[in-house]
Amino acid sequence: MANSRVALFACKNSHEGAWTRARGNECGVEIVDLSNEELVVLELVKRSGENVTTKFNQCGQHFINFSDVDKYRVGKVGNVNGTHVKVMLK
Question: I want to staple 80 with a disulfide (CB 3.0 to 4.6 A). Which of 14, 35, 53, 57 is the partner?
Fold first, then answer.
């Protein structure tokens, strides 16, 4: 995945990100520097109004179905590492 959008950069503390309008080309998240005591949280709001929350406890690329997503936000729970999260684009 060459194309991506930064969602969190060197985030050391718990953080709730801003809502971002989905553009239709999002396909997952890539997480770097996440400790065992931390979680990355991806919240999706679908066009139907349905809320979907996914929690990640491992680094790496995680492919997500962004179809019918209106907006999303990325957050972090924990205060150990400077975590980086990118939203992967098709």
Answer: 35
Q: Which tokens in the block code for residue 21?
A: 């309008």
What length does the chain have?
90
d(CA 37, CA 15): 15
| Cα–Cα dist 25/90, whole Å | 5
Rounded average pLDDT per 10-residue block, the chain, 90 residues: 86 94 96 95 97 97 95 96 95
The amino acid at residue 43 is E
Residue with tokens 């971002």: 20
Domains of the chain: 4-89 (2.60.120)
